[in-house]
Amino acid sequence: MFMDRSEDAVREVNTGYMTEERQMIQDVAREFTMKEVLPVANELDPVQGEIPMDLRRKMGEMGYFGIRIPEEYGGLGLGVFEYCLVAEELARGWMSVASIIARAGGVMGVVGWPLEKRIELTRKAAQGEYLAAVALSEPGAGSDLAAISCRAVLDGDEWVITGNKYWCTFADGADYISVLCRVDTDSEHRSRGLRSFIIEKPRGELPPNCLGSPIPKIGYFGWKTWELAFDGCRIPKENVMGAEGSEGFKATVSGLEVARAHTAARAIGLARGALEDAIEYSQQRVQFGQPISDFQETRFKLARMASEIEAARQLMYHVATQLDNRQRLDKEAAMLKWFASEMAERVTSDALQIFGGAGYTKLHAVERYWRDARLTKIFEGTSEIQLRIISDRLLGKPTNRQKQS
Hints:
Blueprint: H1 7-10, H2 20-44, H3 53-62, H4 80-93, H5 95-100, H6 115-126, E1 132-135, E2 151-155, E3 158-169, E4 176-182, E5 194-200, E6 210-214, E7 225-236, H7 248-254, H8 256-284, E8 286-287, E9 290-291, H9 296-324, H10 330-355, H11 366-376, H12 383-395, H13 399-404
Parallel strand pairs: 1-4
Antiparallel strand pairs: 2-3, 3-7, 4-5, 6-7, 8-9
Helix pairs in contact: 2-4, 4-8, 8-9, 8-10, 8-11, 9-10, 10-11, 10-12
């Protein structure tokens, strides 16, 4: 539940980043989350229930699926900054809900489709009615996407896809799956010869000639994450992203800067939810005749938590602003993703500690924030991959990788 809290405790710093319009967007998203998202999360996450269609419909009406989709295609036409602003608020309720807004858009790049079809489906995406699952990782290819082995072979007017994919969230519930495949096995460079394909399918089902099983996760509930096996899955020749000769690997990597900012926003939302709940609990929980919020260790812990959240938020605002200015920010986006995700794990763990034994139960949302925060250090590039990117920009690539490139 939303709480009455000290103005000085957790109020965001109103910097020059926050225009009047952005403040309104944030306030509306915060109210929507506390009223619509958090109660659903508290009910369904403990039983691993799925995000309700009714909630998705309300999110579509709010425009949250179309934040970055141009207005002429039915979206809000806003930027990465507003996208992250809303994602932080939604993640404060349920990270999975903050994640599903990333599943809209993207089909304008299917150049083989008629423009009318691309526009129609993009308009549906802006309302949350045409959403994607993304199949990148494989059993033997996670951080090393250049090791992709899933094959796509052109057979007449169809591509035939064969191979395995792992960690494909929403594979059943999506309207299509974007699959990164290898089309050229002769290239000397592993990262070349990869392209992204669109597999359209009925919502609630897997594609024909594709078997799958849900992966038993410890968190990130609200939707299923799948292991998929494609065995001669056929799609039309035109269902490929980008023009002939374009590189799927480069397109995938170039899109990760916004994805990593979005992950940081989700991590910050999780941490803030844990902080706010910990403040409320510390003021209610009495030990040794006084609220535990009177103990210096608790007060200092909360102060450190709030400071780390604000530091991550200000870095996010900076990176999002630069991305909206069309700056290339692979190093800074990696810094943001690394800092925010590492921060979220620490802060949610500290919050759970403040709850004591009560935190290690399903009776409070803090355990959900803790479980989901741990994932932010893994997906969209692990913390180790972020440090590799940062160090490569600072020092250049190490000698062994210079020879490979």
